[in-house]
Amino acid sequence: MAVFKVFYQQNLTDRIIREDTKTKYFEAESETEVRQGLKDAGYNIELVEKLSDAHLNYEKENNVDFKVENL
Length: 71
Known about the structure:
Helix content is 25%, strand content 35%. The protein is built from two helices and four strands, in the order E-E-H-E-H-E. The protein has a four-stranded mixed sheet. The radius of gyration is 12 Å and the shape is globular.
């Protein structure tokens, strides 16, 4: 399993504006699994990024809202 960082807009109808981008973290086998798991969530997904071990540790140490969710 890997951890993926998902950059998204809250609603499908929202156009992508960098300042309004939100992030969530999900544990999954692949980017495809993440996208499939979120297809009914109503998010306008901008990017799904697989985190390296170093990036994951950085997020854990520097993001007070860091929480990994399961799909």
